Fold this sequence. Notes:
- The structure is a single chain.
- 44% of the residues lie in helices and 13% in strands.
- Strand 6, helix 4 (135-147) and strand 7 form a beta-alpha-beta unit.
- Helix 3 (102-116) packs parallel to helix 4 and helix 10 (247-263) packs antiparallel against helix 14 (309-318).
- By secondary structure, it is of the alpha/beta class.
- NADPH dihydro-nicotinamide-adenine-dinucleotide phosphate binds at residues 21-23, 25, 51, 127, 157-158, 183, 212-218, 221, 223, 232-233, 268, 285-289, 293, 296-297.
- NADPH dihydro-nicotinamide-adenine-dinucleotide phosphate binds next to strand 10 and helix 12.
Amino acid sequence: MEMQYRRLGRAGIKVSVLSFGSWLTFGSQQEIARSIECMGAAHEAGINFFDNAEVYAAGKAETVMGQAIRELGWPRHSYLVSTKYFWGIHRDTPNAFLTLNRKYLMESIDKSLERLQLDHVDLVYCHRPDPETPIEETVWAMSDIVASGRALYWGTSEWSADEIRAAWLIAEQHHLRKPVVEQPEYNLFNRSKVEKEFSRLYDDIGLGLTTWSPLASGLLTGKYADGIPEGSRGESVEWLREMLTDRDANAKVEDLKLVADEIGCTPAQLAVAWTASNPNVSSVILGASRVEQLQENLKALEVMGQLTEAHKARIDTIFA
Ligand code: NDP
C-alpha cells in the first residue's frame, strides 16, 4: 500500500494523495493523545500534508497539531501544514471576524505560527470569500504573507471559479504571488464545483485541489443507515443531522455498499478511492476521530488500483 504523491496543480510542491485534517477532531484535552496517535499513523503511512484552520476549536486545533509535531519529532522537510482564515476567533470586534481584510490576515498568521510552534506554514488559505473586502486587498495581503516567508503557498477555500480567476489575474497584473490551490468540498454527493465549475481553471491557471469531507462527514461510511450512532459526528453536530440521516442519501450509500462488497472493500474506502481517482484532485483530506478509522480509510490506496471505469459508471448511476 504505497502512498502516491501529486503536484499541487502546477506548483512544484507534492502532496500525498491522502492527507489528514483536524476539523472537529482536534481540540479538547482528552483528544490530544488521540490526535497525536492519528498524526503518527498518518505520517507513517506516507501522509505529508496536515490540514488546519484558525477557527478549528478556536485555535486549539493548531495548538494540538503543533504539540503533536513536536512530540513526534518529525523533520520539517517531511511534512506540510496548512492553516486558513476568515471566521476569526475574536468575535467581539468588527475587524477580526468574517473577514479577509489586511489587518486581520497579517495579525492572524503570526498567532497561528505561535500556536503551531512553527516559523512558517506551507499552505495558507482564505477559508471563504469575503464579499466586503476588495479581492485586490486580500491578494496583496496573502502575497505579502508568502513574500515574508511566513507561508510558502497560498490559496482559497469554497471560492467561486470567478473569484479564483479574479484573484489570479490581480496577482498576475501586479507580479504578486499567485493562488495555487483551492479547497472545495468534494464527495459523491457534492461534485459540481470540482467537475464542472472549476473545469477551465486546471489548465488555465494550473489550479491544484485539496478536497474536504470525502465521506460527507461520515454519511458515506453507511453508519447512518439506521439512525445516529452513539459518539458519532451526527450526535455532536446538530446542523449536520438532517443531512446525515436523509433517507434518499442513505439508500444511495446502501447501493454503494453493494459495489464495495464486490470489490471487497468498505463503502468508506470506495468513497475515498473514488474521490482520489479524479486526476484534478491533488489531495483528499481525510478526517478521523479514531486511529482505527484512519487505518480503514488509508486502505483506499489499494482500492484506487481496483476501481474500474465500469465501477465508476455504476457509481455515477447511483449518485446521478
Ligand atoms: P469526512 O467526510 O471523511 O468525515 C470524517 C468523519 O467521519 C470522522 O471524523 C468520523 O466522524 C467519521 N469517519 C471517518 N472514517 C470513518 C470510518 N472508517 N468509519 C466510521 N466513521 C468514520 O471528512 P471531514 O468532514 O472530517 O473533513 C476532512 C478534513 O477536511 C477536515 O478535518 C478539515 O481539515 C478539512 N475541512 C475543510 C473545510 C473547509 O471549509 N475548507 C470544511 C470541512 C473540512 P465520527 O467518528 O465523529 O462519526
